[in-house]
Description:
Elements lengths: L1 H12 L5 E5 L8 H6 L4 E3 L4 H13 L3 E7 H6 L2 H9 L5 E6 L17 H5 L6 E3 L4 H13 L4 E5 L19 E4 L3 E6 L4 H8 L7 E4 L2 E3 L3 H6 L4 E11 L4 H11 L5 E7 L10 H7 L4 H18 L1
Helix pairs in contact: 1-7, 3-5, 8-12
Amino acid sequence: MRNSVIKTIMNYSKRNNKIFFITGDAGYGVLDKYKENFPDRFLNLGVAEQNMISFASGLSLAGYKVFVYNIIPFVLYRCYEQVRNDICYQDLPVTLIGVGSGITYAPQGATHYSVEDIALARTLPNLIILSPSDSVEAEKCAEFSLRCKSPVYIRIAKSGEPIIHKQGIKSISEPIIVNEGSEVGILFHGSIGSEVISALKCLKRTPKVISLPMLQPLNFDFLLSNLEGIHTLITVEEHFIEGGLGSIIEGWVVKNMLNFRVKKLGIKNEFIHAINNPAGMRNLYGISCNKIIRTVEKAFLNFTFKK
């Protein structure tokens, strides 16, 4: 996904000399071509994250379209105050590219995990939150950010995620129907989509599957119009179970008194002390393919018994 994002920005930079790329001592190898092609519009500001964000806001005020690249804890957590005051408060068109969503960096530990970033980003007015599920969505997220006049946060994994959208997509501004189905709907974002698609292949009954690459703002009208005949919504995310997509959907259902059951699959809100690889962590926290299968089958079964 990160290669798709950077390639899209680099191609646009050939036609627009106001694109500026900043990194905080990250992206070695991935950003080499950009640095080589546009040395006067690329800076590595080192391990100084607060300065990096303030510098980006200054460039934006000077007329540049700025992209800031780093792993998520160092593009959002350590410099939250600067993102809040320098970028979001002034509604500047700066794009934050955060790498290592969820537990991508397992087993490097809590300092590198990004399992609360959506909850944190949701507190920032003006900030658009994008969480692509594959390189196709990632490319569209980059295209969106290039046109956007507001702050954007793109959270991506880094491990060569499989393609979900074989036919391509038009836009990421609306939820994307991945698979038509009935009664049960699966809503997801981010690289956990690979587990959802794997689960879909093993289910006897077919749920409706929807990817939500744009989490803030979320197009609820479009979502609702595509949920006819659905009684249960299952949210799946590689993020804390409270504060992310599950909480967004749960709040929407309650606020509007909608007739959906909601089941949330995500990571328990706790510090992660377990040591495992990403697949093992997904299994531990119940967001693996097998857990999704059991949850969907139970949702179908429970409703059948109650009818």
